[in-house]
Amino acid sequence: MATLLALIGAIWLLTIVVAGAAGVFEAGRGRPPLALLAALVVPPAVFLLAYRVSTEFRRFVLGLDLRLLTAVQIWRVLGGTFLFLYAFNLRPALFAFSAGLGDLAVGTSRRQTAS
Q1: I need a labelling partner for 29 at 20 to 30 A (CA). Which of 4, 52, 101, 107 fits?
Q2: What is the mean pLDDT of residues 71-98?
C-alpha cells in the first residue's frame, strides 16, 4: 500500500509541476482559477473517497505512526523563513505573512486529546 501511495503521489506531483510549467493554473483576468481549485480539492476528495470505500486503505491510514506524522509537520515551522525573506524584500508581504504565519501556526500547534 505504501509503495502504491508513493507512486500515486509522485505521479500527482509530476502532473502538477508540468501543468504549472505549461501555465494551466493561470486563469487570466476576470476568469475563476478552476484548474487551481481542482488541484486543491481533488487530492483530499480522492483521499476521503478511498478511506470510505477501501477497508485496506482505511486500515493502512489508521495504522500509521502518529509520531512520524507529527514529526513531518516540523517542516512547517521552517515556513517562518518566509517572514525573514520578507524582511529583506525578497518576498511580497501578502505571500510572506499568509504562508509564513500559516505554516508556523500549523507546525507549532498541538492537538489536544481527551485523557
Answers
A1: 101
A2: 83
pLDDT of residue 58: 94
Number of structural domains found in the chain: 2
pTM, two decimals, is: 0.60
> What's the rounded Cα separation, in Å, for the pair 72 and 80?
16
Per-residue pLDDT at 115 exceeds 50: no
- Of 47, 65, 37, the C-alpha closest to 5 is 47
Of 35, 111, 33, 32, which is closest to residue 69 (Cα–Cα)? 111
- Cβ–Cβ < 8 Å for 81, 91: no
For 23, 76, 104, the CA distances from 92, given in Å and listed in that order, are 21, 19, 17
Reported as a single tens digit per residue, the pLDDT across 50-62 is 999 999 999 999 9
**Domain ranges, residue 109:** 65-115
Q: Take residue 112 and report the three cell numbers written for it.
A: 489536544
Query: Same domain for 95 and 85?
Result: yes
